[in-house]
Specification:
It is built from six helices and 15 strands. By secondary structure, the chain is of the alpha+beta class.
Amino acid sequence: MALNTILSHPDQDSYVTIAEANDYLAIKQNYSHWAGLTTTQKEGFLKQAALQMDQLRYKGYEVYHTDKDYRREQNLAFPRVNIERLYYGNVSSATSTTVSVLQLSAQQYLADDVLNGGAVVVREGTGRGQVKAITDWATATGTATVASWDIQPDTTSQVLFIAPVDKKIKNAQIEQAYFLSRYQDEDILNVISGVNSYKIGDLSETYGTDSVRFALVGGMPFSPLANQLLQGLIDTTGYMTY
């Protein structure tokens, strides 16, 4: 089954698409390993990486956190209030593939395309509960374009625009998926058992009391690069290090 990358969607299972992972990993010395995986294998590693990331404790809180929202929870940890940018507004007009919020038009902080890759959520009114990926944002009219609406919003609708997640989150998921795909079984068991150093393609790390600390998430080692990318977002009381 294809990955669902629509932010805050109840079925979201990944922050990145396979195409994004392929592009990011193309510069890896051992890219041929990832390139040789099937689509199903890549999807599996990306989903597993997202699940491991979500076992960490992050700053802020999920977008859906009060009784006023149409559902009580979101499927993945991100987006988060105080990390991603959120914009609310009442619908001025809509078509089968767009929604416009006049009060958000021509805002300096909402330049063209800044919401591309984010999501729009219909919070109230006609079409309530829909979550759609934003494919284009036009600041002049405050208009977001989506693939299509199941129920077209109208002027009774209130929407929430969610900016795309930080690239560090996406890159961390890709790094962890790559890590999982290359280093399982004996290699991961060696790390757990206390190997002092190891090499992953073009990455070499040494471990010890005075060196890099290795994250252990859900009983499995966590990519050092993924861990570094998430620093600043993690509440450090929420994960274990060795």
